[in-house]
Amino acid sequence: MALYSDKVMDHFRNPRNVGIIEDADGIGEVGNAKCGDIMKMYLKIENDIITDVKFETFGCGSAIASSSMATELIKGKPVKEAMTLTNKAVAEALDGLPDYKMHCSVLAEEAIQKALNDYYEKHPEKKPDANVPA
Amino acid sequence: MRIYADNAATTKLSPEALFAMMPYLTDCYGNPSSLYESGQKAKEAIEQARETVASCIGAEPKEIIFTSGGSESDNQAILSAAEIGKKNGKTHIVSDAIEHHAVLHTLKKLQTRGFDVTYLPVGENGIVDPEDVKEAIREDTCLVTVMTANNEIGTIQPVCEIGKICRERNVLFHTDAVQAVGHLPIHVCSDNIDLLSASAHKFHGPKGVGFLYAKKGIRLTNLIEGGAQEKGRRAGTENVAGIVGMAEALKGSVSRMEENGKKLTDLRNRLIEGLSEIPHSALNGDREKRLPNNVSFCFEGIEGEGLLLLLDDRGICASSGSACTSGSLDPSHVLLAIGRKHDVAHGSLRLTLGDDATAEDVEYIIRSVKEVVSYLRSFSPVWRDLTAGKSEFIL
């Protein structure tokens, strides 16, 4: 059996949404070079919809594939839905990851959460619970 | 195009080794301990192999014992020396930071049993300084264990000088020569070696077999108890075909050593020259004192696994010391020991050429590595920060 599923290899070989967004509405970076993984996500958000997403990743094959898949899963989706993306969903969409590579999908989830938090920090009025009385 | 450039991991079985093995995998299946003809024939084959192996390293046949490979030999050599030391009240061992895990983990086990181990550092060139060995030896030192050539960065250690120091101080000297046997000239007497470990599949022999050289008079401790095989030093029915194949492979490798060594050194030098053109890259280990087929590099801003997968797509089999390829979080202890920072140790590549490598292969490898490194850098946030001046280049 190969190390990775065909889906992982496809997303590794042909990563989707690679690059940066100069005027991004939210940016999230996680990981560190010392540990061998860094993911950086850029989001463009209009009317609570993620209209564009790009990523850059320093890391192994599954880290690159996880980033790519995560961007696919949230592109065109409402922000609220993107907030609920889990690492499990990323790994499942890739037809699974080896156990010791699951942390790559966790990084992808965290990078997106961080980018969304960055967006909310810049636009506090957009926070889902911003207008709900205490 | 398919280029196998991972000969430090394992090598292809030589046709002559396979040919020599075949009878012992088919008709001549007798147990060497049996007295009837097919058993005795197998026994003769083993003794013939012992003579061949011994002559290839300047030893006497009775100083060779057959094992399952390099790891077992390393374990047995070190545990035996420790046992001898303990009997004489000596419980200190000298080794170094870039040994194979078969050595390091055995030493760690001994540390839990009351042994004190000094791990000598290596310089940036990946070579142990014999002066350091001299200074580290104490009254209670029972063993010095330093490898002949490193498996990751290919650096060749001054084994002969270290052996000489050990002789003068009356300390046993073991060398893990797994990467060197069949590739570098080794003569246990003139190199002052007391114990030496080797593995067949690193010199075109079969997997699962190796040998341990133990100088006459050194009492070996059994790792495997049982029958009286190998003069009671290693129980278990002998791997007859494996042993025969190993001897044949070693004979072939030694006879072609000089010719292959020259050819590979030229190809290696060209490969180093070509890969050095990649900006912010560095060769790991000494430029000259390295195995004729070993090239090890670090490339800043990328991680090794992606590099290996994309090289595999281009038909090149290579290896890396990155954490992601080993399943641990830390990159290679060897790269860290020569002073590489974690950040760049993750982006390492090891290419170990085969005897059949050509100049064309080397040019193809250089082209492919350049393409893949620049592709991976094109979407690496680390590389972006480096080139934007937000962080400083290490290499």
How does this model look, in words?
The complex is a heterodimer of chains A (134) and B (395). The mean pLDDT of chain A is 93. The N and C termini of chain A lie far apart (55 Å). Chain A has 5 helices and 3 strands; from the N terminus they run H-E-E-E-H-H-H-H. Helices cover 41% and strands 20% of the residues of chain A. With 134 residues, chain A is α+β, with helices and mostly antiparallel strands. Chain A has a 3-stranded antiparallel sheet with strand order 1-2-3. In chain A, strand 2 (37-46) and strand 3 (49-58) form a beta hairpin. Chain B is an alpha/beta fold and 395 residues long. Chain B has 12 helices and 12 strands. Chain B has helices at 15-25, 37-57, 70-87, 101-111, 130-136, 159-168, 240-276, 304-313, 333-337, 342-345, 359-378, 381-387, and strands at 3-4, 64-67, 92-96, 116-120, 141-145, 172-176, 195-199, 210-214, 281-283, 294-299, 316-317, 348-352. Chain B has a 7-stranded mixed sheet, with helices on both faces. A 3-stranded antiparallel sheet of chain B has the order 9-10-12. Chain B has a two-stranded parallel sheet with strand order 1-11. In chain B, strand 3, helix 4 (101-111) and strand 4 form a beta-alpha-beta unit. In chain B, helix 2 packs parallel to helix 7 (240-276), helix 3 (70-87) packs parallel to helix 4 (101-111) and helix 8 crosses helix 11 (359-378). In chain B, 53% of the residues are buried. The model of chain B has no long low-confidence stretch (mean pLDDT 96). At the A-B interface, helix 1, strand 2, strand 3 and helix 2 of A face helix 8 and helix 12 of B.
Keywords:
heterodimer; A: 134 residues; alpha+beta; 3-stranded antiparallel beta sheet; 5 helices; 3 strands; B: 395 residues; alpha/beta; 7-stranded mixed beta sheet; globular
